Amino acid sequence: MTALLEARHLTVHYRTPTATLRALEDVSFTLADSEVLGIVGESGCGKSTLGRAVLRLTEPTAGEILFRGQDLLALSGAALRLARRDMQIVFQDPFGALNPRHRVSTLIGEPLTIHGLPNREQRVAELLDLVGLPPDSGRRYIHEFSGGQRQRIAIARALALSPKLLVADEPVSALDVSIQSQIINLIADLKRRLGLAMLFISHDLSVVRHVSQRIAVLYLGRIVEIGPAADLFDRPAHPYTQALLSAVPQPPGAPKRERILLEGDLPDPTNPPPGCAFAARCRHAMPGCTATRPDLIRRATPHGPRETACHLYEPA
Amino acid sequence: MNILDIQGLTLATSQAALVEDVSFTLAPGEMLALVGESGCGKSVTALAIMRLLAPAIRRTAGAIRFDGTDLAGLDDEAMRRLRGHRIGMIFQEPMTSLNPVFTIGEQIAEPLRLHLHLSPKQALARAAELLDLVGLPTPTSQLARYPHQLSGGQRQRVMIAAALACEPRLLIADEPTTALDVTVQAQILALIDRLRRQLDMACLLITHDLGVVAEYCDRAAVMYAGRIVETGPAADVFATPRHRYTAALVRTMPARNPPGEVLPAIPGQVPPPGQRGQGCPFQPRCDAPMLHCAERPALAGAPHPVACWNPAA
Fold first, then answer.
1. Which fold has domain A5-86+163-313?
2. Which of residues 37-96 of B touch A (CB under 8 A)?
């Protein structure tokens, strides 16, 4: 089976006059139809860059992006525009992403206009219904809506062209707890009904765990671990994944677990250390860790393949 | 004796009440969480304690006593002497709270010079000690750096160092870790927790994160639509929530639900000030409303007080 999306050695460098910021280095993964891949990691790990790069909203420095086997980086102009119908994005802040001067019907219908698709009014009505907004919402402006409703509008706009892939970049992070669940439920429901594949980017691990089948953990621009969500959460192998999971406050009533407190900060992405980027903060660091970078090593688990980039797991 | 004693606090604009009849106390060394969603009144309550309310917001009833003194009775100069000295405060966004044109050494030293009248040299030496206390590496060389040269977690440590400079009796922390990554959040909360025990400092933690409350706080007060609806030992409030709102919040957490299942969401949204009605403000979203709910319930009862006619436990 061909994957819906395949990233091969995807690399993004941002150049400034004095330095090169290595936002994403050699990231490879596949995403199947209707699959949700969660992308987790801390600020500056490259997760938003990854989401933008697969849509070519940020131009990759190197690597390949195959969408249904077609190399997106080889496309331009009309062909790229056509391919983008199938891939859309939802951002964290819907108020920043939606033009406040346009009526909601214009905002949701704009992708249809741009791509010259018919039956705009009917489709907008369908979309409002799909995301659970009242039919008269189309006549109103974005400032008349609450944060959760605005995110519904942003989702409706992203779904207007019936994409196959949705990149959701922190879609619920700006919402209150009680509203967050409503939007998580909406996204999960849409995924089921429309068979959407998703890259679900979030710093909130419990949200990612809830919606994803597989999870990739990023550290300083590289995938350090990727595997089935349940397995990765229950048995994190990479010391960084272990520390990250242990830092999440436990839900009330849950048994306390050992907390691995990380010292220090992320290394400077304009001057990444040789070897494993996590070595300086790792409690299992060995002499070789600062010298050679570990490759992602694949192991079979009962839930599917898991890849971990850590010298601890290299066969002797 | 309680270091902070708030009774019947009501805050209002000319149009509507924002906070109504809020009462709580805080003992030395104790950590109390004010928990709730946007607009529930938790931050404005904290600002009222510091007497930093926007001009349009007035305290229309109630009293705030700090270490036995009614804060309403203090003149501006006396209040200024309290802030940053005996009451420390840290906010969500350290970048906007730190002054970008002063070094962090100068900013930590400022309260020491102002309140404790240390010489510039003494103040900088003490600032280095404080940076060491909050776990910033090589504190002396950090003193000359500017806020933009630090990471988010480092800036929040600087904020904490400045807030703790004069060893306050009360620390008010308004969403101190909301803008930070989980690993940094764990570092900062562990730090606040250690320092409050070490310095016997009372701590008012304002947050929307129930996991944080359950893990670090002694007591919790859950706010909804401007009122405290449930209060008690943090462990009890979340293990056996009594208010239907608290129970629904705990139930809806993704971590409490099997992955992929529909989350038991709370329908609707929080009513804005001025549209909170005469009865229980949560009644329109409640899963177990009764006729009685048209009348406002008082915060009362055992094992811990709840403002609900039909408690979940």
1. Rossmann fold (3.40.50)
2. 37-38
| B4-86+166-294 is classed CATH 3.40.50.300 | yes
Which candidate in A220, A265, A268, A283 is best for mutational testing of the B interface (most B CBs within 10 A)? A265
Q: Which residues of B touch A261 (CB under 8 A)?
A: 186-187, 190
Q: Are A5 and A67 in contact (CB under 8 A)?
A: yes
Cβ-count burial of B261 within 10 angstroms (0-12 exposed, 13-18 middle, 19+ buried)?
exposed
DSSP state letter for B88: E
Q: Which residues of A touch B208 (CB under 8 A)?
A: 176-177
Most confident among A102-111, A265-274, B180-189 (mean pLDDT): A102-111
CB pairs under 8 A between A and B: 123
pTM: 0.87
Q: Which residue has the higher pLDDT, B12 or B270?
A: B12
Rounded CA-CA distance B292/B294 in Å is: 5
The answer to whether the Cβ–Cβ distance between B37 and A177 falls below 8 Å is yes
Judge whether A180 and A19 are in contact, CB under 8 Å. Answer: no
Of A176, A252, A266, the CB nearest to B250: A252
Is pLDDT at A1 greater than 60 in this prediction?
no
Domain definitions of chain A by residue range: 5-86+163-313
- C-beta neighbour count of A16 within 10 angstroms: 8
Chain A residues with CB-CB distance to B150 below 8 A = none
Q: Do A229 and B259 touch (CB under 8 A)?
A: yes
Q: Which tens digit of pLDDT belongs to each residue from B87-146?
A: 999 987 767 789 999 999 999 999 999 999 999 999 999 999 999 888 887 888 889 999
Tens-digit pLDDT profile for residues A194-204: 999 999 999 88
CA distance B190 to A246: 13
Portion 184-223 of B in contact with A at CB < 8 A: 184-187, 190, 208-215
Burial A272-309 (b: 16+ CB within 10 A, else e): beebbbbbbbbeebeeebbeebbebeeeeeebeebbbb
Nearest to A251 among B187, B253, B285 (CB): B253
